[in-house]
Cytochrome
Amino acid sequence: MIVCMTSPKLAIQTELGRMYSRQVGGEATVPSITTVIGMDKMDLSGWAGYLAAKTLSEDQRLSEALSQPSKMRSLVRESAAAAERFRDSAAARGDRVHNYAEHYALRALGEPEQLEKAYAELEANNELGFATHFEKWWEQYQVQPLATEVTVWNHSVGYAGTIDLVARIGGKVCLVDYKTKAMDREGFVKTPDDKVIMQLAAAAKAEEQVLDAEAGAWQDWPHGTDSMLLAVALGEGGSRTFMAPVQALPDYWSKFYALRRNWEAQFKIAQARASLVEITPPPQDQSPAAP
């Protein structure tokens, strides 16, 4: 059994998103799976506007600011940034939950881990519900981990990424992606976005996995392309497990492939720094007019 932990140094943030290198300190040459999927941008302006208005309406300083234009402008600026604050907070929470899940798997594998530290970080942020329901999910599904935080590479198309967990569940090798989600009004964990199907479809096309990030050592992907693909939604009040529909995977893969070509075109345009070039009018004809 080979256990692979992703080195953050293999991923490099660029102007066109996160890219991966083959070894620590090497040149980043391919985009990450999530960067490619990010080419399919969603219009979140409505959500951002709603969140800004909601934040402003709930601010206790609003009544006082109504008669003071300078204070009102300050509140409006703060409220306008509500979507960014929410996004950053959710990302930090997701990192903490993923960190706990990784170290939980490492302990199960008998590998060096820092589970207590990861638990303490959740506790400090009042997020222990995520840990509780993750552990319940692990027990209920009788998870047998094979590897955690696995960096994979696809040469044929040109991308890399990280799989949260490779495990045997119900006798089947599964690729698992964790999604931290809020609870809905009925008290259920919200369903992940369908883009996770595209993410899992790309992960299932892995051709290599890293063995040693420092040395740049890789091995052939040992799990084939017929693994079960699971998205596990983790919330403070529960968990839900979803399987990517097998019949839809070819279409999601086709879309990912198209987005990868789109990313490459954007990358080449950025490298060439190609943009509109202003030109001047042609010189006026100075020759005498014909009689």
Summary: The longest helix spans residues 82-109. The chain has one domain: 8-271. The chain has a mean pLDDT of 88. The radius of gyration is 24 Å.
